[in-house]
Design a protein that fits this description.
alpha+beta; N-terminal domain of TfIIb; five-stranded antiparallel β-sheet
Length: about 100
């Protein structure tokens, strides 16, 4: 349960950071956020595989330091898939469109 909370918190933090910094200059890696004495350091995500441009497996290292506490280092590994909806009939691999 703790891992799920940590992963959820990381995703939420990254969504806020990446969304607000979309037009800012690239600050480089690793990146750090400090709020109310709590520090999150996150390192460049590494893509392990991107099968057929639909299934993405990636990982990244993070370090979380609560205010006045010791740093905790973790490795986040995610796997996600996507399906693109289309009005066209599905085409199998190696088949030609008619």
């Amino acid at each position: 349960m703790r891992k799920v909370r940590l992963a959820f918190a990381l995703v939420m933090v990254l969504a806020g950071v990446l969304g607000s910094a979309a037009f800012a200059q690239d600050p480089g890696w690793p990146r750090q956020i400090t709020k109310q004495g709590n520090t999150l350091v996150y390192y460049r995500p590494q893509v392990d595989s991107w099968t057929h441009f639909q299934e993405l497996d990636w990982r990244m290292a993070i370090s979380i330091t609560p205010a006045g506490g010791k740093a905790t280092v973790a490795n986040v590994k995610q796997s996600a898939g996507s399906v693109v909806a289309s009005d066209e009939a599905p085409q199998g691999h190696g088949q030609t469109a008619q």
